[in-house]
């Protein structure tokens, strides 16, 4: 009896201990806040890839770290495109957003905002000598803005201006330099860096016609707003925000070679300087592992799912055949990027399960690739001599064993080139995951470009890496194909 009581007491103690651990873990999880931002907007948020590596830094990040520390929270920072930030709040993928975001009336319908913590002005960025210095000068001109930004709303109100929304600020700068845009409307602190790095550009400040400043965005009804406002007021009163602004907005920027005073400013000739990205090469090259991991997982899972779907399509069971055909039709008939964004944002909003960007990418590409591979495998199965199947059935070979040991091996040997083509397409299409923040090769190249105020160099370098990976995959497939032909 004593032993029984002792065992019971031990069991109870263990149960209490596990309960306390679970409660502590839950409490710790609840003390972590996720900040979503767009890390291609220096000096607000960016990556100094030569120094900080994967860490997102900047003016906004320092403010967020200060506030969360004061309130006793841990801060987790995730990156994505600017136009995906508010959807991330609505899908509860983030607790707050900081990205130099202005609380417009339209945005307030979807999210809540803190008080303003910094006020900036818009500028017109154009080529030197263009004489585009005020809004009236933009009439009849094509003007670039960042998609979803306050500048987009400001340019909409300018009469006679042709609006051109683009995903990123570097895209706007490059379009101006290529003469496809007459100008771009960009925030002054950001325009300063691009003008310093590009001697053929200039910017002119334009007066704000309405409230324009940066605030922190929260999901509707968030209880964090009063707490953050309280600390923001403390930071303003103590001069902390002014100190951080001085730190980040006066940071040194790599200057382009100045034009001699007695020589007119002309647009520089086509020139690439790969030396600028050398310090960031370790950061870019580490994206190879991310890209390959994503591609291999998606290809493997897509191949398995494709086999299942192909068997559904040739099945005599009508519901399975109908499902396989309908599934393939849907996934082949809708854009892959649409499927990707739906899986990433809708999963968290509809199920409450917050999958990572990499998981969302693997799931989407596996489901999509399975649809294409299933058609290839189905064609391969149907191309196998019918006599093989009839002979197996006459010998009493079970259907599962017949498909696994006789039909599928022959079909896969015939369709190997098509499967290799699908794998190559998957490797190249994997760059799409950059739109939901996965730091693959392409995403890292754009981040480095934004940090260095350059465009072509990181993209060309990453393009060469993609090409080498495709060549390696093609060579490996050719070797495998020759060996299979020899063994047949």
Describe the overall structure.
The chain is an alpha/beta fold and 488 residues long. α11 packs across α14 (357-383) and α17 (441-452) packs antiparallel against α18 (456-487). Helix content is 57%, strand content 10%. β1 (32-37), α2 and β2 form a beta-alpha-beta unit. The strands form three sheets. A five-stranded mixed beta sheet has the order 7-6-8-5-9, sandwiched between helices. Strands 2-1-3 form a three-stranded parallel beta sheet. A two-stranded antiparallel ribbon has the order 4-10. The chain has helices at 2-30, 59-71, 85-90, 105-108, 150-156, 169-177, 188-197, 224-238, 240-249, 281-285, 287-313, 318-333, 336-351, 357-383, 386-394, 399-429, 441-452, 456-487; strands at residues 32-37, 74-79, 96-97, 111-113, 122-127, 142-146, 162-166, 183-187, 201-206, 217-219. The protein contains 18 helices and ten strands. It starts with a helix and ends with a helix.
Biggest sheet strand order reads: 7-6-8-5-9
Strand fraction: 5-15%
Q: End-to-end distance, in Å?
A: 73 Å
* Count of alpha/pi helices: 18
Stretches where pLDDT falls below 50 for ≥5 residues?
1-7, 13-29, 264-268
Major sheet size, sense and barrel closure: 5 strands, mixed
Percent range of helical residues: 55-70%
Shape: elongated
- What is the number of strand segments? 10
User: Order of SSEs, N→C?
Assistant: HEHEHEHEEEHEHEHEEHHHHHHHHHHH
